[in-house]
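input
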Amino acid sequence: MRKSLSRNIRRIKDKSSYSTGEIAKLLQVHSRTVQTWYKTGMKTIDGSQKPLLYMGADIKHFLAGQQRRGRTPLGVSQFFCLRCKKATTSEPSKIDITFTGKSIGRSGESVNITGNCRICQSRVTRFTTSNGVEALLDAMMNETCNSRLTGYEYAASNTDLGGGH
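output
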């Protein structure tokens, strides 16, 4: 099994130059992968002809940007749906919370939260700590209460819930 790319990045020295083959060997990727990185914007040393040479600092900067670009920030009650490729929520009745019994540092016990995507109904999973579960439950309670009040046709007219007469 291939090691994580982020761990292999540590092998690259900032002030050293590397060829395509050297980068591929250090990061345990194919040389075509490195060529694709070049085509998508990884900088070469100025004026370098074939073989292309890259500075270590430029390689690290490019790969860090690639990792950041692929992330989707999630709200407290959101999941990332792999089928829809975006952040989504789940029906509160479909959420299942499993405490694993393993601790994560000082932040509490590890928890797996699963549910169904509201868009495509595929299974979605989120990993958090016991502290994150409390925040999730609070957010779900607020969402559930607001949706019930919004749909109530006799809501008071002095509220912003849109049901007043």
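quick obs: Confidence is low (pLDDT under 50) at residues 147-155.
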